[in-house]
Amino acid sequence: MLVEHFHRQRKYEDAYRYIQFMTTRKIDLHPFLRADIINEVYKEMGIAPSSNERVKGEEVSKNNGDDEEDEDAVGEELDEVKKLIGRAVLHIGK
Length: 94
Fold this sequence. Notes:
Elements: H1 2-8, H2 12-24, H3 35-45, H4 67-93
Helix pairs in contact: 1-2, 2-3
């Protein structure tokens, strides 16, 4: 959801960062992100997606038209990620 949010906002660097966050943790992008979003983010960043990130064929969409609910969920998810990153930074600093 965060990738979709940043993609809608045309914040491609942020979208790319979360795609990388997912791929470094071996999370398959395809169940969560549509092919056009992944491909556009990489295109805007000037990077060719690896074979693991390249998406072909049928696209997956979880958007049922409830943009307000999506935005709320994105905000909650972003808050959770910020907390996790903050904890990691504190742990590293010890």
